Amino acid sequence: MMEYSLGEGNFKDWIVAETKFSPDLLGKGESIMYLGNGYMGLRSATEEPYLQETRNLFVNGTFNKAFPNEVTELPNIADSTRIDIRVDGERFSLELGKTNEYIRQLNLKTAELTRNINWTSPKGKELRFQFKRFVSLDNLHLIGMKMEVESLTDTVDLSFDSGINAQLSNSGSQHFLEGERRVFDRQFLSLTQTTSESNVDIAINTMHRISKNGKETNNIEPRMDMARRSVWLTYDIQLEPKEKLQVEKLTTIYTSRDNVLEESSDQLEALRDYSLNQLKAISEKGYDKLFEDHQHAWKRKVWDVYNLDVKSEYSYDLLALRFAIYHLTVMTPAHDDRMGIGAKALSGEGYKGHSFWDTEIFILPFFTYANPKVAKSLLTYRYHGLIGARRKAKENGYSGAMYPWEAAWPTDGEVTPLFGDIDIVTGEQTKIWSGLIEQHITSDIAFAVFQYYLVTGDHAFMERYGYEMIFDTANFWASRLEWDEKRREYHINNVIGPDEYKEHVNNNAYTNYMAYFNLRLAGRYYELLKDNNPDLLYRLNERLNLKEPYHDWQRKADNLYIPKPRKEDLVIPQDDTYLSLKEIDLSKYKNQEQVRGIYRDYNPEQINEIQVTKQADVLVLLYLLEQTFLKEDFRLTRELKHANFDFYEPRTLHDSSLSLATHAILANDIEKADLAYALFKEATEIDLGPNMQSSDEGVHAASIGGIWSSAIFGFAGLRLDGEKLRINPSLPKHWDEMKFTINWKGQPITLLITQSLLTVKAENKEPISFETFGKAYSCTDYLEVPI
Amino acid sequence: MMEYSLGEGNFKDWIVAETKFSPDLLGKGESIMYLGNGYMGLRSATEEPYLQETRNLFVNGTFNKAFPNEVTELPNIADSTRIDIRVDGERFSLELGKTNEYIRQLNLKTAELTRNINWTSPKGKELRFQFKRFVSLDNLHLIGMKMEVESLTDTVDLSFDSGINAQLSNSGSQHFLEGERRVFDRQFLSLTQTTSESNVDIAINTMHRISKNGKETNNIEPRMDMARRSVWLTYDIQLEPKEKLQVEKLTTIYTSRDNVLEESSDQLEALRDYSLNQLKAISEKGYDKLFEDHQHAWKRKVWDVYNLDVKSEYSYDLLALRFAIYHLTVMTPAHDDRMGIGAKALSGEGYKGHSFWDTEIFILPFFTYANPKVAKSLLTYRYHGLIGARRKAKENGYSGAMYPWEAAWPTDGEVTPLFGDIDIVTGEQTKIWSGLIEQHITSDIAFAVFQYYLVTGDHAFMERYGYEMIFDTANFWASRLEWDEKRREYHINNVIGPDEYKEHVNNNAYTNYMAYFNLRLAGRYYELLKDNNPDLLYRLNERLNLKEPYHDWQRKADNLYIPKPRKEDLVIPQDDTYLSLKEIDLSKYKNQEQVRGIYRDYNPEQINEIQVTKQADVLVLLYLLEQTFLKEDFRLTRELKHANFDFYEPRTLHDSSLSLATHAILANDIEKADLAYALFKEATEIDLGPNMQSSDEGVHAASIGGIWSSAIFGFAGLRLDGEKLRINPSLPKHWDEMKFTINWKGQPITLLITQSLLTVKAENKEPISFETFGKAYSCTDYLEVPI
Predict the structure, then answer these.
(1) Which of A35, A230, A599, B543 has the most CB within a 10 Å radius?
(2) DSSP string for B692-743
(3) Residue in A48, A159, A428, A594 to test binding to B, most B beta-carbons within 10 Å
(4) Start and end of every Glycoside hydrolase family 65 C-terminal domain (chains A, B) (predicted)?
(5) What are chain B's domains?
(6) Is A183–B95 a contact, with Cβ atoms under 8 angstroms apart?
(7) A31: nearest Cα among A688, A594, A709
(8) pLDDT tops 50 at residue B786
(9) Residues of B marked as binding?
(10) Chains A, B: CB contacts under 8 A, how many?
(11) Pick from A415, A23, A601, A429: which is nearest to B230 by CA?
């Protein structure tokens, strides 16, 4: 029912389309076609309502905890997109009457959603509907909508209700006090909301412009209505055959988190007036002009910046990459460094808008390389999060900064829920341990800072934020390690690694290596600062109360147990017991339609005893550590990658959407080109594929980051090599050419790759070309990269 | 779409039926066919869900205030009635496929709801569905459901999800913390909830019994699932042609308001276990046996008690009266004297489950005369409410008991919301003044106590509860009256009378007369006790700190201004200014489809200036005061009734459902027999009529009380006459015979009325007959009524 090849001309490979309407499979289109601008995300529920719809609007950073026994989440803001349409008194719905033509399209280039319908009412009258909408990238507070209805054959009595509805909740949890509802001048509707616990004010205003046959009219006086938590207008219009009704609906949304207003005595009223005035100011422009501004913003801020192109006989690949960039843009709060990226972006209630390691490991690299300003904002969010991370460390009896597994507002600290899905053995809810013992997130963030610094050379960031984050995460690890007296080494016991099918394991390879990395990195930066910036080091010493940490970090790293590859087969044990667990036939769960199907047959305790891996674990380690200075410590030979890939890939169910991209990149590294492409393709299909329910709870943000990563770090072979940038392209056989722009040490570099040639073009410099035969080329000579 | 003549044989005039399904007009059937037992009310949303449905389950007394700026209300309890059915993977919905046969019936006699459907799926397979359910009157905590599906033509893959869903809210306001969800033994599902503010625990348990072709089977292993606030099982069953699936679903509901448990350390867990054990204990019986117990309870507790019959060519009238008794039974918490009756019964969110004067003036008379034990419980609820009434008086600067306009839990006090619908002039919400200035409720309750005492002679009630209520309400009025120095009399300024279209009026006739009545009644009882029970009077004096109230009450009553009939036309002025307001053409708003249509053209301020009345006001006065000892003070001649009826009826929009019954009774009194019947009929049609949206927010409890009142006080002409019972029948021309049983001074009396004969039959006595020709007959001689 999804179609990706309908774009033509300027829009070739830009159109994500839905060609058949299915009332029971709405989640797919709602999610993957959702609109947003980082400030807000509007799930693409249709104007006319359906039973199975999920109507969501999220504004980043408005976290609230609805009830004492729940965790904070992004609340579902009042909706202004629903329009209840009646034709001769009968409800317009594609479940009723007859749908003669139907197409819904998300234009990735213009970020506009359109829907064209030819429909015959149950009474037999034929009408044409067109719906358009966008969430402006030019004015972050604006939702523009346009509806056109044409009666094709008969005189019809058209009627519609349109307003603002705040009866929505998050699956039953209501976050908002009922606020004020108002109609001004029978035209401007206003609704305010305040979150129940975090006290965030929301002001939503909307207005309609009505045109008949292309001429705006004020003659159609609407009825006004209110019900609990809602306010709306009802318009009644008669259309003769061939007559057209056009309705523009413009909505503005402001929240007290925006900081647009000075402190005032009645903050909420001031916010409402401000929002209303903004709406009045722009309402004169109308949909078309406002859309034009939005479209220009997308060109300027997105497509010109990333400059991505693929020439290939199979143009889906390019569309998938554009889809990734589209979503990476709409999900990311580039405007506010107090906000992060949710695991389901802004497209659904799944994971409550919380940020996981998904951001740092699977999404951030895109921004670090291609839009470092945004990467800086996202890392600054983690810097603000030190408050919560330090509290978490203290609460758990540790020192330093222990980052929350799930993060919301920076000061919230740990917000992972305590209970999850059903345990099929006990019939109870399963306990979620991640918030307590999935601890690698702390070094993942340290890694992201390190990577950002290497790529951008942004000393200012490091001095203001970065060193403090690295030192205080190292402090956490130093306090976290457990001395094993018998083996005379430090262990990290009772953790969950990236493979969440293994709870309470000891010495998860990924966790131990990354902790080692974190400690060593802190030590290295400490030395660096001692030489280059003793003043800063003095200040950090004061603030963090470091007390000779350097020696502690070094000593602990020196004595930390790092699981080494088994001599016989080079396999790195995922943890202390994994390799001795029983093996079962996993074919039932590999490539299944439904993820986590294994939970239908086994409960967590039982899965813990099986040699099965949810998602890339040891393999993420091999992918990340290659990019660090640790290569002197650990020789990541091709053989090592090969051995571990061959061992873990068959045992990995990819039951997390984070998994495939890593395997795709690693497959590239070990020259399994076909498999690499297949895994890339599979990663794109997590959201774009034929499974109509996989995106119900929202798009998979990390997987979308992984689409870009698979192409850039996989096919284009971009990799950090020590402090240098290494490029080792290996395009899929059917790709003729690939182009993209990244930033290296503050300057944009455009790479043009064919099957045989790599051309590197920096600003104001002549392009340089190299022949590519799977060899590694370093750009450092050319770019003179300092660190 | 509703049909009332389908009952046959034993069920003639017992069947309320819906013969066509209309997905946009669901409210009517959901409300008027709702099931209940006073403990709980289950709105009749269908098993399969629809977009426009309103799915409600209320348990009486579980009031909660969801947010600080809202008022307390009956929360929408978790639902166990929804069953999502799929046929060959396609959703079963009457909006899809083809419905060949459809009928839904509420059997008033057995209080069972059944639905029979013959449906062809979109894939062309024909199936027969039968759904049944009841809310047990035998076991107040039980909901029984039964579903039968037969494949008529093909092999089908049937699948359904069934469980407990607590995602529901009250129009967006969530009252419950998310509780525990559990599955026990893959069969018993459990969900607990706790209200957010009032801390009421709810435990819901449900279970399924599956039969194939009439044989119970445990072979069909369901899948178990949980989502936020919900838990369910999924069954997959293949049916060959002519095979039948039967599913029984039994649900028990217990709350901490039930007081079934001893105090315990974990109240909620204890409640869940108790509820679960109760369910396990009854689950063996199965639907049919449990239904039989329920049906017997209806016979024993309801139909045998009220013993109502009407013989008439037009049998709708009898059905309407049975409909009234059905609803008066299911709405009333006869089991618990801490609970009242909501204005929309237990059938919808309208009026939030709050009790108004509707109970005392329009519903209670039914119980007072026909089931005094229940009347006592309802009045005891008001006695418990003295706590809140005294607080309200104090908060408003008065003494005594000032009853809340809207009442919830007895200790809550005033719970009227502060804002209502849209003001079409300002675009703001209108302010609701009733909670502050609609004060006649206090004397309405005093009146109800008086009436109860007269009819039942229940001295014990009076001594324990009644006198205290009468005295303390009189205390309120004594403090409330305002001395007008110029006119040397007491006034009651700035009130709303029964006519809520007039706000802030002075000396509303109804209010002033009823206050006068209240003061005089207190004085009279005071004298009575002084003579007969000085001990009780002493104790009441102590408790209420009465300090010579008697003289105060008498003096104030003596000097209270009572609007007298105008000399020229005997019209009693509704208030100080009503008769001088401007008159407009009201024909647009009389007999309109939509109530309160006048608000579409005028805002409250403007309506205040027009000679228009929302509902019976002066006329209620004429109806009630006739029943009091005040007849010595006010001669209620037929001419006075006539004059005021003729004046006010054309000015009354009946924009409250409380209005018609009063006018019907008065029309009877003034011998407008046709009009009396027309008004009775109109009153029945508030819920039973062809308007498919008038019951969307719930049935009209007071109007339903009014159906019974119109027949008994109107057609049968039953009326208190001083301390005697007067019967002055005047049956509608097409009624041959009417029969019913009431209680008088503790003993049941059956009245049999024909067009010419009244027969009175008391227990263990020979029946006595009188000829009736519109004359008044007093039963007091025969019954020897003392007071």
Answers:
(1) A35
(2) SSTTTT---HHHHHHHHHIIIIIIS-EEEETTEEEE-----TTEEEEEEEEE
(3) A428
(4) 718-777
(5) 33-301 (2.70.98.40), 435-653 (1.50.10.10)
(6) no
(7) A688
(8) no
(9) 357-358, 614-615
(10) 114
(11) A429
DSSP per residue over A424-448, as a string?
TTTSSEEEP-HHHH--THHHHHHHH
- Return the minimum-mean-pLDDT range out of A161-165, A583-587, A740-744, B635-639: B635-639
**Residue B596: left if φ>0, alpha if ψ -120 to 50, beta else—which one?**
left
Q: Is A734's pLDDT higher than 90? A: yes
- Cα B387 from Cα A540, distance rounded (Å): 63
The pLDDT score that the predictor gives to residue B632 is 67
With contact defined as beta carbons under 8 Å apart, do B207 and B80 qualify?
no
Side-chain half-sphere exposure of B697, counting CA atoms within 13 A: 16
Please determine, for the modelled complex, whether the ipTM score is greater than 0.85.
yes
Q: Which residues of B touch A206 (CB under 8 A)?
A: none
- Catalytic residue of the set A468, A500, A626, A682: A500
For residue A785, what pLDDT is reported?
A: 30
Segment (H or E) for A309:
strand A309-312
Could you confirm whether A500 is annotated as catalytic?
yes
Closest among A351, A330, A404 to A656, alpha carbons compared: A351
Nearest chain A Cα distance for residue B116, angstroms: 22
Angstrom distance (rounded) from CA B182 to CA A1: 37
- Closest residue in B to A98 (Cα) is B96
If pLDDT is split at 50, 70 and 90, which confidence band does B285 have?
very high
Find the range with the poorest average confidence among A281-285, A473-477, B630-634, B698-702: B630-634
Chain A residue numbers touching B422 (CB-CB < 8 A): 181, 183, 224-226, 231
Question: In this model, does residue B76 exceed pLDDT 80?
Answer: yes
> Reading across the β-sheet that carries B309-312, which strands appear in turn?
B309-312, B735-744, B747-754, B757-762, B768-771
Residue appearing with tokens 């009529």: B689
- pLDDT of the residue at B628: 73
Is residue B750 within 8 Å of residue B740, measured between CB atoms? Answer: yes
Tell me if B673 sits within 8 A of B680, measured CB to CB: no
Residue B675, token pair as written in the block: 């009009």
Considering only B232-241, B466-475, B608-617, B770-779, which range has the smallest mean pLDDT? B770-779
Phi, psi angles (nearest 5°) of residue A582? -75, 150
- Mutation for testing the A interface, residue in B88, B182, B422, B600 having most A CBs under 10 Å: B422
Q: Which of B30, B468, B500, B649 is catalytic?
A: B500
Nearest residue on chain A to B182, alpha-carbon basis: A428
What is the structure's pLDDT at B1? Answer: 82
Computed over every residue of chain B, the mean pLDDT equals 93
Q: Which of A170, A226, A430, A692 to mutate to test the interface with B (most CBs of B within 10 A)?
A: A226
pLDDT tens, position by position, A298-336? 999 999 999 999 999 999 999 999 999 999 999 999 999
Output the known binding site of B for substrate: 357-358, 614-615
Closest alpha carbon within chain B to A86: B24
In chain A, which residues have their Cβ closer than 8 Å to the Cβ of B180? 429
Residue of B nearest to A697 (CA): B227
pLDDT at A264 (0 to 100): 65
Strand B188-195 to strand A15-18: parallel, antiparallel, or no bridges (unpaired)?
A: unpaired
A24 is in an annotated binding site: no
Least confident of A669-673, B382-386, B611-615: A669-673
Nearest to A49 among B51, B66, B93 (CB): B51
Distance from CA of B574 to the nearest CA of A (A): 31
Are A173 and B178 inside 8 Å of each other by CB?
yes
Residues of B in contact with A191 (CB under 8 A): none
pLDDT in tens, B91-119: 999 999 999 999 999 999 999 999 999 99
A31-41 residue pLDDT tens: 999 999 999 99
CA distance to A251, B391, B651, per residue, from A296 (Å): 20, 63, 63
